[in-house]
Amino acid sequence: MEKRILPGIVILLVLLLVMVLAAWTLQTAQRKPEQTTPVPSANLDAPLYDWKLVTTWPKGLPGLYSAPEKFAERVFAMSHGRLRIRVYGAGELVPPFEVFTAVSQGAAQMGHGAAYYWKGKMPAAVFFTAIPFAMNAQEMNGWLHHGGGMALWEKLYAPYGVIPFAGGSTGVQMGGWFNRELRDREDLVGLKMRIPGLAGEVFSGAGGTAVTIAGSEIYTSMQTGVIDAVEWVGPYNDRILGLQEVGQYYYYPGWHEPGAMLEFTVNQAAFESLPSDLQAIIRNATEAVSQDTLDEFTAANNESLRRIRATGRNDIRQLPDDVLQALYDSSEVAIANLMATDAAAREIGESYFQFFDDVRAYHEISERAYLNARDRVLPPIAE
Ligand code: CA
Hints:
Layout: H1 2-36, E1 49-55, H2 66-78, E2 83-88, H3 99-105, E3 110-113, H4 137-146, H5 149-157, E4 162-169, E5 176-178, E6 192-194, H6 197-205, E7 209-211, H7 218-223, E8 229-230, H8 235-241, H9 243-246, E9 249-252, E10 261-267, H10 268-272, H11 276-311, E11 315-318, H12 321-341, H13 343-364, H14 367-377
Parallel strand pairs: 1-2, 1-3, 6-7, 6-8, 9-11
Antiparallel strand pairs: 3-10, 4-10, 5-8, 5-9
Helix pairs in contact: 2-11, 4-5, 5-13, 6-12, 8-11, 12-13
The structure holds calcium ion (CA).
Calcium ion (CA) is lined by residues 173, 231-233, 257, 260.
């Protein structure tokens, strides 16, 4: 008798527990809006916006593609679901190098990429990604947000009906993967390298041949010998593309992209159609994600470098001084040409280099002085 009643009691107890849990969950769910909504309840009846954000990055690529994804999540949460932004990888909606045009024409309300991809349209755009041998991430952030840079960036994009925001920095990149050893500047002659932007011109000016290849084709191009060298980003992203499998030498530092800044772009008419609180949410989410992206790169590059080193199959080397000098000389020529032939580049360049001179003088006795001081007293770095 007991043996038949006991299972029945257990089932009853379990059922009761499930019912209590269900009632509690339902009550919590109903209570949630009042608990987490700081805005007046009238806003919950406000119009819903469904936006598209197109990117220049392969879908799902950590650090680069994940920045706009994080942005969309934050905007959705902060707006209480009133602004939903769908993120698209390169080629899903538009080809990678047509992101700016898509945002300008309103085919998508937002984009994420890098300003230097648009240098064919606006040569001065390179100042908002990276200038060879110039500002690092910390310095770029200072110039953009507190040194007049953002106003110049907005002015450059205004004729296209596009509003820019800083979209995260990669920090100092790596010089790149090479399948030929670099001993001096003569080794640059005839070298075919994937290197975009102003740096590509600089590389060609120093005797190499620069080509622009989208991220998805880099691995095969290196493997088949179509190119001899490639710069992509740094250990974090390079390792995901598998470049350590197809490149022998890993040279540093990234003279050409000492703190490459990414960008968010917003169609101006779409932005202005939003209520002011959603505009503020977009502004704040871009700032938060921009900083978070740099933080992510700082943390993930370390781990990835350790893993690349652990395989023992690559030669990780510093670029020889003679190679750096040749690249610097070529970059001086390229920047002078750019500022002499383009009015916007002249105006932006003057602001950029004024800030750079000032920050360089201060960083000499702050950031650099500290790194030097640290190394004088700490034990040598273990590799
Ligand atoms: Ca790069």
